[in-house]
């Protein structure tokens, strides 16, 4: 495969924003490219950029945009069907950078050209949108998205600039276990934008494994819970653990009823363009009393 260049774009914090493998002449005209998107977060971005797709992921939770309802499906985001992708023969396959270690070797082995978008946080998502605008000849659409984002965030921060920031513990659940989400994760970046202070800030990791005794010492004002996958199963796991594990009753946040379950559709692993709804949810939790608190 003849490669014109390998484009690596880094944020100042050295998070990978997008890694694009380009063939000769591919990026000249976005309207003529055959684009495959393997995650719903990527699909929603392509829709807003007015990009046609030749392949989309299967999704049991997120709704497929009407524009792509008849587009061939190539499996789940974490394990797209490589043979189907080869048959469809896209010019580019776009996936989240969180899956690069799993998917990059497969794309290379299959001879597929690829792009990995940083959907780990909102800043990364918009840097990737800027990059896509240039690559796919959609700079006007990308600028409109960024302008809208910057206005919303400026207005949102202005509302809360003089309010005391609550200290939060964020738990990301998986079936049978959970980890702590830092400000480098998507859900953590949302909480930070909303004005919250993460009790496990100051690390380069997105997620860390911490024992509950250490969490108790951090004395969070609020505990937020969300899911990596299988949200119904995970939330039931959280409910059972908080009811049966004696240590949770010692948390001030639990005693005060300040434990909140976040929507998987808005607070999953990858950044999405519904972040405004997510930040509105956090605004209610952080600044408007206990009406959404799980009753203990």
Automatic annotation (TrEMBL):
Cited InterPro entries: ABC_Transporter_SBP, ABC_transptr_haem-bd_IsdE, ABC_transptr_periplasmic_BD
PROSITE patterns listed in its UniProt record: FE_B12_PBP (PS50983), PROKAR_LIPOPROTEIN (PS51257)
Domain of life: Bacteria
Domain Fe/B12 periplasmic-binding: start-end pairs: 34-290
Signal peptide extent: 1-23
Keywords: Cell membrane, Coiled coil, Heme, Iron, Lipoprotein, Membrane, Metal-binding, Palmitate, Signal, Transport
Cofactor: heme b
Coiled-coil positions: 135-162
Family, similarity comment: Belongs to the bacterial solute-binding protein 8 family.
Protein name per the record: High-affinity heme uptake system protein IsdE
């Amino acid at each position: 495969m003849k490669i014109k260049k390998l484009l690596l774009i880094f944020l100042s914090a050295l998070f990978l924003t997008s890694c694009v493998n380009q063939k000769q002449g591919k990026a000249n005209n976005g309207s003529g490219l055959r684009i495959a998107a393997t995650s719903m977060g990527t699909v929603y971005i392509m829709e807003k950029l007015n990009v046609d797709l030749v392949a989309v992921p299967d999704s049991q939770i997120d709704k497929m945009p009407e524009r792509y309802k008849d587009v061939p499906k190539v499996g789940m985001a974490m394990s797209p069907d490589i043979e189907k992708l080869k048959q469809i023969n896209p010019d580019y396959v776009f996936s989240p950078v969180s899956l690069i270690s799993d998917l990059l070797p497969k794309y290379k082995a299959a001879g597929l050209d690829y792009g990995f978008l940083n959907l780990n946080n909102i800043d990364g998502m918009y840097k990737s949108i800027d990059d896509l605008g240039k690559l796919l000849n959609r700079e006007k659409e990308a600028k409109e998205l960024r302008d809208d984002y910057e206005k919303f965030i400026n207005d949102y921060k202005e509302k809360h600039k003089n309010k005391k920031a609550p200290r939060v513990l964020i738990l990301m659940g998986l079936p049978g276990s959970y980890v702590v989400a830092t400000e480098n994760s998507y859900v953590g970046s949302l909480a930070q934008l909303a004005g919250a202070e993460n009790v496990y800030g100051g690390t380069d990791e997105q997620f860390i494994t911490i024992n509950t005794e250490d969490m108790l010492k951090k004395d969070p004002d609020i505990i937020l819970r969300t899911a990596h996958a299988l949200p119904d199963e995970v939330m039931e796991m959280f409910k059972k653990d908080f009811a049966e594990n004696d240590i949770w009753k010692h948390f001030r946040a639990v005693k005060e009823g300040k434990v909140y379950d976040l929507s998987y559709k808005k607070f999953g692993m990858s950044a999405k363009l519904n972040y405004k709804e997510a930040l509105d949810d956090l605004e209610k939790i952080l600044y408007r009393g206990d009406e959404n608190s799980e009753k203990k």
